[in-house]
Amino acid sequence: MSSSFPRRQSRWLAVLALAVLLPGAAAAAEPPIPIADFVRHGNFSAPAMSPNGKYLVVTQRAAKEPRDEYSTVVYELAGMKIVSAVRVAESGDIPWRHTWVSDTRFVTTLAREYGTVGQPWLTGELVAANVDGRGNAYLYGFRRMSSRTSGYFGTLTNDQGYGWLAQVPRSAEAHILMGENPWSWGETARTSRLYDIDTVSTGRRTVAEINQPGFRFAVEADGKPRFAYGYDDDAEYAVFKLDDAKREWLPYASAEKGDLRPVSISLDNTKLLSTLSVQRGPRALVSEGVDGSGRRTLVSDATGDIDQFEWGLRYQGPFAAGSSVGVPKLSYIVDPTRSDAALHKTLSAQFPGQYVHFASVSQDGTRTLFSVYGDRDPGAVYVFDAPSGKAALLYENRPWVKPERMAEQRPISFKARDGMQLNGYLTLPPNRGEGKLPLVLLPHGGPHGIADEGFFDTDAQFLASRGYAVLQVNFRGSGGRGPAFEAAGYRQWGGRMIDDLVDGVRWIAAQGTVDEKRICSFGASFGAYAAMMTAIRAPELVKCAVGYAGVYDLPMIYDEPDARLGGKAYRYYLKALGKDMAELNSYSPTRLADKLAAPVLLVHGSADEVTPPAQAQAMREALTKAGRPPEWFYVSGEGHGFYAEKNRAAFYEKLEAFLAKHIGKP
CB within 8 A of 663, min separation 6: which ones? Predict the structure, then answer.
């Protein structure tokens, strides 16, 4: 076995001499990994390097009660010396993504956490700051609404929508192009706009607008809008192209040949790179002239969408693309001698079994900021210096996690009872014996458009560290497999989607790895719903069920505020769930509690705004009425998944005890 790569030493390393970090054999007497190691949050995120390669900006977390606090911290890469630390957001806000607009100024997109289930929600706000911590400016967001007073972010005006960073044009220093999607009840709800914003003065001018709600723009390198795309009033996807002569948006005829999603426009403005679904199958990456001519396929996968992209040299588009189904694998789509593609290939060879992601490349291509992560490694961030041919470790995302003690995650593929091909992952405990393992079925949330991927999963790793095999199935309706696969889950929440999960359990049991008499289901959000439904539909297999921040009564969804407004949320539910109340009742665990014989643990937070506490309370009442009261863990102040580390640890303790009680300790 090769020697361990010295990740925990922040020193320069020759790229060609990088050693491989492989999982080692842990001593049999080694104690279990502490729960604290799984629930601790990483201290750094969202790294971005300045165009001159001199500075690094990151989001830095500080542990606080009752909520952690976040700052935007700028380092000088030489020696990792702190230049400034700025609270560019208010309490509860997260600097989600940083984008440099000059060598000394950057723009931050804000988000807000509503719990640990799923990603934080982008709030549609953009702020700007200088490397020295000065010059803070609020560029766009709801905090401007109905206010014209001077405050912390400067003079405010009236914004009633969601803003998103479209591009940093190369033709204007410290400017950005920002798309605006007004709220459905706003003054101009039907119009999507593109603004040029001076990030210093905060002045803005309209560059383009289209009379379509919620549209996005594809922009040329110098800032000229060329395409607009999104869903029209009939919920049908549409692409428009700006006709310079007529100065109006016209339907892009080439898009009619398939479901086409623009990715980027070439530096010379002659080629459009897009993902394309033909006959609603998995999306391929295609290139064509901006006039729709000469379309050719660059990368495709028979099973999965091309949804992984690697971007390198600024304004030159992605250099590699691939699918996240199974083990993520990239194909290089540019001249292999191009510096960013060649470096990525070299670095990837030094980290076999892991994924190398380029976060930033300096304007002159001499410095590259990259991260490395995998199924057993939550990742680390490095900077590569081309003149010296060396790379330096900057930080690890969660340095207390030892990859050699984490569990192997195996991609799996099987056929559902109706013949549909499904995929997923089986995580197996390290140092397992010869006997059959107890199994935890771990369905993901969402459910539509979300998918389990082959990267580090904290829940799966925790369960495996306690000796359980973990099964994750990308049931129909999941993302990453094309529009038809996602649509196959519509109105099937309690039907074929649950069949897929049960079929996955039966398939795994038939392989002889797990004990079919010791199986429990555990999930969060929709996954909690699926955990209950699998126990109802397959009581001979599923011996216990755990629901975390779950939805259990489908008709109740239509009583939630977002649905009552009759906007996008309502239209989504109509498509995904339908409104046949008899069907929704037959798919609701609250209405089927008398059929749920397995022991249940219900976990919820009192401040959950995604799945209201009323959902968990209704499930608890239904089970109690059926004579099988569940174990109950209800935490005040927590949202959609517990955020405080002490509450996460308490949940894992309850989960571990519940599993041991009902399917036994491995």
Answer: 438, 518, 519, 520, 543, 544
Q: Which of 280, 278, 341, 279 is nearest to 309 (CA)?
A: 341
Instruction: Tell me which residue has tokens 């560019």.
Output: 88
Distance, in Å, from the CA atom of 502 to the CA atom of 476, rounded to the nearest integer, reads 13
| Residue 413, number of CB atoms within 10 A of its CB | 13
378 prior amide bond cis, ω within 30? no
Alpha-carbon span 567 to 120, nearest angstrom: 22
Element (H, E) at 646: helix 645-663
CB 558 within 8 A of CB 579: yes
pTM to 2 decimals? 0.90
Residue 476's closest CA among 455, 453, 447, 452? 447
Using one digit for the tens of pLDDT, what is the confidence trace for 77-110? Answer: 998 999 999 876 666 789 999 999 999 999 999 9
Q: What is the mean pLDDT of residues 562-577?
A: 77
Task: Please report, for the chain, the start and end positions of each structural domain, with discontinuous segments joined by +.
Answer: 407-555+589-663
CA-CA-CA-CA torsion sign (325, 521, 434, 406): positive
Question: Which residue stretches of 325-476 are H helix?
Answer: 339-350, 458-465
β-strands 390-396, 380-385: how paired? Answer: antiparallel
Q: What span, in angstroms and rounded, lies between the C-alpha atoms of 149 and 177?
A: 25
Task: State yes or no: cis peptide before 51, omega within 30 of 0.
Answer: no
Neighbours of 654 (CB within 10 A): 16
Classify domain 407-555+589-663 by CATH number.
3.40.50.1820
CB 469 within 8 A of CB 439: yes
